[in-house]
TrEMBL record:
SUPFAM superfamilies assigned to the protein according to its UniProt record, in alphabetical order: Immunoglobulin (SSF48726)
Residue ranges of domain Ig-like in the record: 9-80
Superkingdom of origin organism: Eukaryota
Species of provenance: Rotaria magnacalcarata
Keywords recorded for this protein, A-Z: Disulfide bond, Immunoglobulin domain, Repeat
Record-given protein name: Ig-like domain-containing protein
One Pfam assignment: I-set
Length: 80
């Protein structure tokens, strides 16, 4: 018989406030934990952020639980 222990998803380290100069690139990093490994969806104003070639890059959760959203060419519309 096997015993599988499940842990609820949890943010070990959440988002931190950042001040960024317009037109620069910013990296938003979180650390999550849970078993099985949680899935993460990045949201802005309640809508899912999708990776694209120009503006957003999403680095999925790695083995250590770190995930990253990279926003290129930051402008006032990126303010949350």
């Amino acid at each position: 018989a096997n015993l599988h222990v499940i842990y609820a998803p949890d943010f070990v380290s959440g988002l931190k406030d950042k001040t960024v100069i317009a037109k620069e690139t910013v990296e938003l990093i979180v650390k999550v934990a849970g078993t099985p490994q949680p899935t993460l969806t990045w949201l802005k104003a309640g809508k899912e952020i999708k990776a694209d070639e120009k503006k957003y890059s999403i680095i999925p959760i790695d083995k250590d639980g770190n995930a990253k959203l990279i926003i290129k060419d930051v402008n006032e519309e990126d303010h949350a």
